[in-house]
Amino acid sequence: RHPDSRALLLLVMDHLLLLSILVLPFANGSSLSSLIQGAHDSHGCSPVALARRRVKALSLRRSSSPFKGYLNRDHTPPLFKTRPLAAKTTTTTTRKISKKPRATADATAEAVAVAASAATTAAAPAVVYESDFPQVVDEEVTMAQNNAFPIAGSELIRKAKVFFNQTFKDWGPDTLSEDFVFMGPVVGPLSKEQFITAVTGFDFLTAFPDNNAQYYHFRVDPFEPNRVWTTQRGVATHTGTMAGRIKPTGKRIETPPQALSLKFNEEGQVSQMTVGYVMDRSVGNTGGLGGIFGYLYAIGSPLPFPEGRPWSMSWQYRFFNFLGRLATAVSNFFAKFSKN
Fold first, then answer.
1. Least packed by Cβ within 10 Å: which of 59, 165, 215, 239?
2. Domain locations in the chain?
């Protein structure tokens, strides 16, 4: 009745088969959705989560064989199954010897994960929600229940304001703790020594003498009473030489709003600093980039790697979107075909 529709249906099925063949090499033991989820989970996850994931991956690698099924890693073809040796006692001894190093390595990796967890995480805070809005945290009550930190929130905010209004030349020897860590979206983690080396080797104010970070919205995290968050919308003019070679351009820089935070220890020292997390990449003229990456892009001298340039869609993401559009088109076609 509809010869053209049937021909089109066969053409669509041929394309779907071709897409399946193209996607198959990237499956590697999991479906496309699990690959996407895995990529999402691994990006930006905590060191503790990464450590635990490595422990699990280590166990999986040891329990898997290179000859296992392409799309089913739990299946071992009978041809490659290990055959027992003639002497039963020898087989038992061999198994005991081979299992000991595996158990030791797994235990060591697990110990590293547990140690990292103990060092970087605290007990889960007690959370209280607003009675009228059960998805909204009652910050005041939650803060009161979790505030076991010896330094008051108002004093932490004052210390954060002092810190951000100083330059590294104004810092005292005890400003940063010995276990200080610096982290940005793509930079770090940097130790205290690495961070000090980085900031002392780069004279930012020579290139932007009128720079004003415009910090605002200081607040203590109700989940972490030793952490102060703030927002900045930096403005500056490029009137000096940058890094000894980039001549002044006279360009006015306006950065997007960025989230920053400081963590303090009980002695009042800064133990962690996070900067450059852009909250709205459509604001400003830095291409949506935060930190020094944004300033360099705005004056026309972006860094020569993808992280130093504005975000662009990867081919994998474009291909994924294409599959979504194709699935929608096929679904709409069948819906229209069924009506006819």
1. 165
2. 30-118, 151-308
Which two three-digit tokens encode residue 50?
A: 């990464």
The residues, any chain, with a CB within 8 Å of residue 280's CB and separated by 6 or more, are 256, 257
3-state secondary structure (DSSP) of residue 314:
coil
* Residue 276, CA distances (Å) to 165, 273, 289 in order: 17, 10, 8
Among residues 283, 258, 261, 256, which one has the least CA distance to residue 271? Answer: 261
The structure tokens listed for 218 are 């200081």
Q: Give the global pTM.
A: 0.61
DSSP characters over 210-242: T-B--EEEEEE-SS-TTEEEEEE--EEE--S-B
The phi, psi pair for 279, rounded to 5°, reads -100, -25
The string over 132-151, giving b where at least 16 C-beta atoms fall within 10 Å of a residue's C-beta and e elsewhere, is eeeeebbeeebbeebbebeb
pLDDT tens by residue, the chain, 340 residues: 444 555 555 555 555 555 544 444 444 444 344 434 444 454 455 555 555 565 555 555 444 444 344 334 444 444 444 445 444 444 444 444 444 444 544 554 454 444 444 444 556 678 888 888 989 998 888 888 877 889 998 999 999 999 999 887 788 888 999 999 999 988 888 999 898 888 877 778 888 999 999 999 999 999 999 999 999 999 999 999 887 888 999 999 999 999 999 999 999 999 999 999 999 999 999 988 988 888 888 888 888 888 888 888 899 999 999 999 998 888 888 888 777 6
CA–CA separation, 259 and 275 (whole Å) = 6
Cα separations (Å) of 83 from 21, 71, 80? 35, 24, 9
CA dist., res. 324 & res. 219, Å (int): 41
Contact between 216 and 249 under an 8 Å Cβ cutoff? The reply is no
Write down the residue that tokens 């860094």 correspond to. 303
Apex CA 337: angle with CA 336 and CA 340, to 5°?
Answer: 90
The H helix count followed by the E strand count for the chain is 10, 8
Structural fold of domain 151-308: Nuclear Transport Factor 2; Chain: A, (3.10.450)
